[in-house]
């Protein structure tokens, strides 16, 4: 299948799917927030319409930007947040929309989307970095030396460097003599057992 056509199908599917899910959630939330039974249906429909349109604009613009630009970065999220905020403003106020309201909506949703992107990237980065210390963390835990994990990270003593560690490297990251002896002994024993297998 043509990659461009595939990306277009993905954009349409994700946009429609997101809009339907959020529309259903809007019906439920809107129904819960309505006070009188006569206004409940109208209020729920308004929530469903507003937020399904918002999510459709948000995901559609974000996916289109990713497809056009070939990367997923903060710019895509700023543009999609801005476009979704503008769509929501127009939907709620129509052509009576005041420029100040439109700009505040655009800016607010752009900042929210950029913040969400940055938080996700920070979490991804931390998870990727923590994956480099799996064996070191397990070793320190087994030796009841968990307090020195930050020293390992500070010195970039990752899992691949464990067999190469000497007393000097451990001393450079401020690990006291007793803990250094335990760590070096554990590494020596662990690698002897590994080599036997």
From TrEMBL:
It is a multi-pass membrane protein. Keywords: Membrane, Transmembrane, Transmembrane helix. GO terms for cellular component: TIM22 mitochondrial import inner membrane insertion complex. The chain crosses the membrane at residues 12-35. The keyword DNA-binding does not apply. Coiled coil: none annotated. It comes from the Eukaryota. One of its GO terms (biological process) is protein insertion into mitochondrial inner membrane. It is found in: Membrane. The keyword Coiled coil does not apply. This is SAM domain-containing protein.
């Amino acid at each position: 299948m043509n990659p461009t056509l595939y990306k277009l199908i993905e954009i349409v599917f994700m946009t429609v799917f997101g809009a339907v899910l959020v529309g259903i959630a809007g019906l439920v939330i809107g129904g819960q927030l309505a006070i009188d039974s006569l206004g409940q249906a109208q209020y729920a429909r308004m929530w469903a319409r507003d937020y399904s349109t918002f999510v459709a604009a948000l995901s559609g613009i974000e996916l289109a930007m990713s497809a056009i630009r070939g990367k997923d970065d903060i710019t895509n999220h700023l543009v999609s947040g801005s476009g979704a905020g503008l769509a929501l403003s127009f939907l709620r106020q129509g052509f009576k929309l005041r420029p100040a309201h439109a700009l505040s909506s655009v800016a607010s949703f752009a900042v929210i989307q950029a913040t969400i992107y940055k938080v996700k990237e920070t979490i991804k980065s931390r998870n990727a970095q923590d994956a480099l210390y799996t064996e070191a963390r397990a070793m320190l835990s087994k030796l009841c030396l968990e307090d020195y994990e930050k020293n390992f990270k500070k010195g970039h003593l990752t899992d691949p460097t464990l067999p190469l560690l000497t007393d000097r490297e451990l001393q450079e990251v401020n690990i006291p003599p007793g803990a250094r002896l335990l760590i070096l002994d554990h590494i020596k024993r662990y690698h002897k057992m590994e080599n036997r297998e």
